[in-house]
């Protein structure tokens, strides 16, 4: 066997084995590996063709090759030259991606450019020719095809060497390896100009693939890379957690703003006693839900071991009763009976962290309601009292869906939702039970889970609480009574019409003149035109110009001295301080607390009264030890129109609870229908311009509107687009835009008949 055949054959076997090893093993999903995969595939094609050519040459006289196989040689060499150029083009693209993050973020564009270049180059090669020559016993080629390929190979080698030299100082082993690789390839390249180039091709490719394999896939380097990736993922996970908590705070507090605002207004109208009592229940539920949200936001403190145990005296019987009463409305129309049993031995007053106890019980009860479709939920409270300590046993047993044995261990994992494909209709963050377990352990307790899949589950919490000597509790509180502010004028800036309506209604109750604008530019224009206000309430997350950016421009206006209050749903710990540093005079979190609002009004507008009250709470006789909560809740007469929406999968009851009544529901839905087409067009334009920042703002608005009306699926889709917009992930946005638009159009077709009736 001649040397001119042995070398290509050995190169082919070497590259083939490398392909088998590389493509059969699991790899880190990096852009670099994709380029190496292309290089390796092109090298395999080249070595296959070259081995075949040399086999043919070894079996055929040169004169027969020229006469009989010229066309085949011509075509195969065009493919080889194209593949050889593509290999070094990919090597250049590889260097670009590891050097410039902007290139990596637009990798799909780079792939398209590379694909177009390959097609164009091969098309040009079709119009070139080769010349077969005999050099000793070796059949060699020359001509425009080979020369054209050499030019582009030289170009890409030169560019790659230049970039490598610029980045060697970064002490990145990849650049040094690439530089050595390119230097060797350059030497072999110039050698091929004077010797049997067909043989040298294979040598170059074999060495190139070998060096790149160990540059990218060396086990030690891969281990380092995996560690770096793990560290990056950990940092991203921590950031994602913070963003998740911030987003969750915003999303929950925004509808709560409507609940608390409208409910509190109902309390002050005094028209119907029944309505007033219902409103009191709504306010109580809203405040408790807000307390739960604040507890969820404490998970960062839990993980940092900075959560403190704050112990006070409390009535355990009253606490349990109120928590169950709070959770019962969540049952809705499901045929579920709630039973509660409390032992006679339970002390009247215990000493412990009642806030965390409430959170623990609420999480478990809520979880039982979510995953139980029918049957019974039983709460049992027993205790063992000894030496001033009460060992509480609080169990919640349901007849719900149950948990598979192999998944019980994952039950208390953060962000973990079991059987999500089966529970797609159930809302949840995956944090509730994880927080519950951590809180129980912090309080020195234990939680046990017993479950049978398809039959139900039982959660039991064991906690030690100190028995208090007190028989009654004296609570001191200050009731803040707001006065009216006739003649005062406030500008409210918020892009969400529902938020505007809530804030305006509360302020007008106090005889304050209110003006509304939905963007920062209009706010600035009013001030520049000489409009005078006693206060500005300014939302932060708005399209085109945020509240923070608006404040910067307001401060540039000569003699501007109006107090500017940040009114936002971004209410996680530390945000108040951040906004104050930005120059805001004060900070109000959504949902609007009347107490906080009165404080701000008093400070900047003047005047409120504080009345000190002492409320004596006497626990009196023990309540009924076994009591039941039925599931029948008066919903009022439901119209045909609302039934129609329900039949189409719209969560009407959620919408009504947020917006107060059907009239407001229809009014705001009409506004939604009038504005959504314009929002769609704007989002398309932002997507076309790759303006992901403004796209995310609009997606956020669509999501908020959808949640107000009970468009659950649309809200979920919009939320995904909001997150991807913030991450500058234009590929996801463009890929899933059709799904987003189709869901919007589906909602439009559903609500049009409802609004027309």
General description of the model:
The radius of gyration is 35 Å and the shape is elongated. Strands 3, 4, 5, 6, 7, 8, 9 and 17 form an eight-stranded mixed β-sheet that branches. It has five domains: 3-217, Rhopdopsin 7-helix transmembrane proteins; 231-285; 298-470 and 620-629, Histidine kinase-like ATPase, C-terminal domain (Heat Shock Protein 90, 2-Layer Sandwich); 478-615, Response regulator (Rossmann fold), CATH 3.40.50.2300; 640-756, Four Helix Bundle (Hemerythrin (Met), subunit A) (Up-down Bundle). The protein has 27 helices and 17 strands. Mean pLDDT is 75; it is low at 420-429 and 608-640. The chain has 757 residues and is of the alpha/beta class. Helix 18 links the parallel strand 13 (535-538) and strand 14 (564-568). 59% of the residues lie in helices and 15% in strands. Helix 8 (173-192) runs antiparallel to helix 9.
């Amino acid at each position: 066997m001649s040397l001119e055949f042995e070398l290509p054959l050995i190169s082919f076997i070497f590259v083939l084995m490398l392909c088998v090893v590389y493509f059969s093993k699991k790899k880190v999903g990096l852009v670099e590996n994709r380029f190496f995969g292309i290089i390796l595939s092109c090298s395999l094609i080249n070595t296959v063709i070259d081995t075949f050519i040399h086999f043919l040459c070894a079996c055929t006289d040169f004169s027969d090759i020229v006469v009989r196989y010229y066309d085949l040689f011509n075509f195969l060499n065009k493919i080889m030259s194209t593949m050889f150029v593509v290999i070094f083009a990919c090597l250049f693209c590889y260097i670009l991606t590891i050097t410039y993050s902007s290139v990596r973020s637009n990798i799909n564009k780079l792939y398209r450019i590379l694909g177009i270049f390959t097609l164009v180059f091969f098309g040009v090669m079709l119009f070139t020719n080769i010349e077969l020559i005999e050099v000793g016993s070796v059949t060699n080629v020359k001509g425009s095809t080979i020369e054209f390929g050499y030019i582009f190979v030289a170009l890409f080698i030169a560019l790659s060497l230049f970039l490598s030299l610029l980045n060697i100082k970064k002490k990145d082993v990849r650049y040094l390896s690439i530089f050595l690789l390119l230097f060797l390839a350059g030497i072999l390249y110039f050698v091929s100009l004077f010797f049997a180039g067909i043989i040298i091709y294979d040598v170059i490719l074999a060495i190139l693939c070998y060096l790149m394999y160990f540059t990218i896939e060396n086990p030690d380097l891969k281990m380092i890379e995996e560690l770096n990736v793990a560290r990056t993922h950990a940092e991203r996970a921590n950031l994602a957690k913070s963003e998740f908590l911030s987003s969750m705070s915003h999303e929950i507090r925004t509808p709560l703003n409507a609940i608390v605002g409208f409910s509190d207004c109902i309390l002050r109208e005094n028209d119907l006693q029944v309505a007033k009592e219902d409103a009191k229940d709504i306010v109580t539920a809203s405040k408790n839900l807000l307390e739960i949200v604040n507890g969820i936001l404490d998970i960062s403190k839990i993980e940092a071991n900075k959560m403190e145990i704050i112990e006070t005296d409390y009535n355990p019987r009253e606490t349990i009763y109120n928590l169950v009463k709070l959770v019962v409305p969540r049952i809705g129309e499901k045929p579920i009976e709630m039973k509660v049993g409390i032992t006679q031995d339970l002390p009247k007053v215990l000493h412990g962290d009642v806030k965390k106890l409430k959170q623990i019980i609420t999480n478990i009860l809520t979880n039982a309601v979510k995953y139980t479709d029918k049957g019974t939920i039983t709460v049992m409270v027993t205790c063992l009292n000894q030496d001033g300590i009460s060992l509480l046993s609080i169990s919640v047993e349901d007849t719900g869906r149950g948990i598979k044995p192999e998944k019980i261990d994952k039950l208390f994992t953060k962000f973990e939702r079991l059987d999500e494909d089966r529970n797609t209709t159930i809302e949840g963050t995956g944090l509730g039970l994880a927080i519950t377990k951590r809180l129980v352990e912090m309080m020195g307790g234990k939680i046990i889970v017993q479950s049978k899949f398809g039959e139900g589950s039982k959660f039991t919490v064991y906690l030690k609480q100190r028995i208090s000597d007190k028989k009654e509790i004296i609570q001191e509180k200050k009731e803040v009574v707001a006065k009216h502010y006739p003649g005062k004028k406030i500008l409210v800036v918020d892009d969400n019409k529902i938020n505007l309506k809530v804030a305006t209604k509360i302020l007008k109750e106090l005889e304050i003149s209110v003006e509304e604008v939905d963007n920062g530019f209009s706010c600035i224009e009013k001030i520049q035109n000489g409009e005078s206000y006693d206060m500005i309430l300014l939302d932060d997350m708005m399209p085109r110009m945020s509240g923070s950016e608006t404040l910067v421009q307001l401060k540039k206006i000569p003699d501007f001295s109006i107090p500017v209050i940040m009114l936002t749903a971004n209410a996680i710990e530390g945000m108040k301080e951040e906004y104050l540093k930005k120059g805001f005079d004060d900070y109000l979190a959504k949902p609007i607390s009347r107490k906080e609002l009165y404080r701000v009004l008093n400070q900047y507008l003047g005047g409120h009264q504080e009345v000190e009250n002492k409320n004596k709470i006497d626990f009196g006789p023990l309540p009924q030890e076994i009591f039941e909560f039925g599931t029948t809740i008066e919903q009022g007469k439901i119209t045909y129109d609302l039934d129609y929406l329900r039949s189409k999968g719209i969560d009407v009851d959620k919408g009504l609870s947020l917006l107060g009544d059907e009239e407001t529901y229809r009014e705001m839905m009409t506004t939604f229908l009038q504005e959504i087409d314009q929002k769609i067009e704007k989002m398309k334009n932002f997507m076309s311009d790759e303006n992901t920042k403004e796209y995310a703002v609009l997606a956020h608005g669509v999501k908020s509107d959808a949640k107000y009306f009970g468009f659950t699926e649309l809200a979920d889709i919009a939320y995904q687009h909001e997150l991807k917009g913030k991450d500058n992930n234009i590929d996801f946005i463009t890929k899933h835009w059709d799904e987003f638009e189709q869901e919007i159009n589906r909602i439009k077709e559903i609500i049009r008949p409802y609004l027309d009736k």
